[in-house]
Amino acid sequence: MKFELHKPEFAVCLPLDTLSWSTEHYLEQSHQKFHAFTWVQLLELPSPFSFDEALLLCQHSNEQWLAWIPDYGEIVIHISQFCQIR
Length: 86
Description:
- With 86 residues, this protein is an alpha+beta fold.
- The protein has one helix and five strands, in the order H-E-E-E-E-E.
- The chain starts with 15 loop residues before the first helix and ends with a strand.
């Protein structure tokens, strides 16, 4: 089996108003308290093949957590990279 990967030869620029949600999301996240051994939804995947949820293991710093992602392993993620599953 052969995979053909297509890499675009140009970058697409998005208007700034479409990117504003990430700043708002980060400000909202910074006020939340997260707890160890809870599942969170990943907003940024470490690989295209990883799960989109992670289990928080312990707090690494004020804005980072050590987490476990199924079929990926342990990773340190910033609070802007995930949100709580509701």
